[in-house]
Design goal:
By secondary structure, the chain is an all-beta fold. Helices cover about 0% and strands about 60% of the residues.
């Protein structure tokens, strides 16, 4: 009923989780601080993946969810809403590239989509430019580059 799921009373300790990745060969890449916690119907999910020398981009990048998300009923332009934040860190330059995270358009949702935030005129806008090889920058990914996410979404 309403958005009561989005105002959890508290989240407990994170439960460790190792996601599967679409569009990425993990190789010797590493996961850091990946975990989730639930409060009512809300799921808080965070983590970092750092590319190693044998990691590679193989397509559009998606991250598996630890708990299935609410399906297509929450769709905005075919993308599932989530309170989200993410970034790609490029240590060779010190740049952080903000990304948005949405749940995949399925019922139930099982993946976290990653896409870039572009500036179009005065304000940033969400464009459906999914994170993949050469996006958000031409040399992405390099050894040491990281993808970080921190989202809250409604479970299925």
């Amino acid at each position: 009923s309403g958005l009561s799921w989005a105002t959890p009373t508290s989240f407990g300790t994170l439960t460790a989780y190792t996601p599967t990745l679409d569009g990425i060969t993990i190789g010797n890449g590493t996961f850091t601080d990946v975990g989730y916690s639930q409060s009512g119907d809300a799921v808080w999910y965070q983590g970092i993946f750092t590319f190693g020398s044998t990691s590679a981009a193989t397509g559009v990048m998606r991250i598996s969810l630890p708990v299935n998300g609410k399906g297509s009923g929450l769709s905005v332009d075919g993308r599932q809403i989530a309170l989200n934040m993410g970034c790609i860190a490029q240590p060779s330059t010190g740049y952080l590239y903000p990304i948005q995270c949405t749940l995949n358009n399925a019922s139930p949702a099982t993946k976290l989509n990653l896409f870039t935030i572009q500036v179009n005129g005065t304000y940033p806008v969400s464009q459906v430019q999914y994170v993949q090889s050469t996006v958000p920058y031409s040399s992405f990914p390099q050894t040491g580059d990281s993808i970080a996410w921190n989202v809250i979404y409604q479970k299925a």
